[in-house]
Amino acid sequence: MQIQLEHAKQIAELETKVAFQEHAIEELNQALVAQQFILEKMQLQLRHLAAKLKDLQPSNIASQAEETPPPHY
Description:
Layout: H1 2-55
C-alpha cells in the first residue's frame, strides 16, 4: 500500500512537471512567433529603405574636389 502511494505521488509530480513544461514551451513558441513577425517587418522596412537610398538623386552640391578654386588663386 505504501509503495502504491509513493508511486502515485511520483506520478503526480511528473504530471505537474509535464504540464509546466508544456506551458513553458507554448510561451516560448508564442515569443518566437512574435519575434519572427518583428524580424519579417524589419526586413521589409530595410528593403524599402535600401530601395529609397538607391533611388536618391545625387546632390546638386559639388564635392570639395570638384569645386573650382576661388579667383584669387
